[in-house]
Design brief:
By secondary structure, the protein is mainly beta. It contains one helix and nine strands. The strands form two sheets. The chain has a five-stranded mixed β-sheet, with no helix packed on it. A four-stranded mixed β-sheet has the order 3-2-5-7, with no helix packed on it.
């Protein structure tokens, strides 16, 4: 009986050791509704062509499966950007720099929905969809706001 108990303990210890890698688990998409903080780095914009939409009061950026159309736009300060989900999948629109503009969260940006953000301050505002990319690649875009 004692041999069986020791064998069972040894097997349990082996199973526990095999399951514990010492690394923290990485959450999967959809496992948590909280949006992680965006890092301060963004996509390399040096070779990107920005669509000149200056002078327009409202412009549309579509989230499709799995890109933004148009991905890179140049607008005048005070322009309203209407982000619309024209894809079949859930998306979100998150600023690379946390708090740079109002994030459009996944639960509020389902297929067929839209939401607008007004850009009042000049600057460059890179953004991404965390479900289909990272801050530097995949489903990324940027808005350049001119005075």
């Amino acid at each position: 009986m004692r041999t069986r108990a020791l064998a069972l303990i040894a097997v349990l210890l082996f199973v526990l050791a095999a399951c514990g890698s010492g690394e923290e688990a990485t959450p999967t998409v959809g496992a948590d509704e909280a949006t992680p903080s965006a890092p301060a780095d963004g996509p390399d914009l040096s070779d990107k062509e920005f669509d000149d939409l200056t002078g327009e009061s409202t412009v549309e950026v579509q989230a499709r499966d799995n890109n933004f159309v148009p991905p890179y736009i140049e607008i005048s300060a005070g322009t309203e950007v209407d982000f619309s989900n024209r894809g079949r999948n859930q998306h979100n629109v998150l600023p690379v720099e946390d708090g740079a503009f109002k994030a459009l969260e996944t639960e509020d940006f389902q297929p067929g929905t839209s939401d607008a953000v007004t850009f009042s301050e000049p600057g460059v505002y890179p953004y991404y969809c965390s479900l289909h990319g990272t801050t530097t690649k995949g489903m990324v875009g940027a808005i350049r706001v001119l005075e």
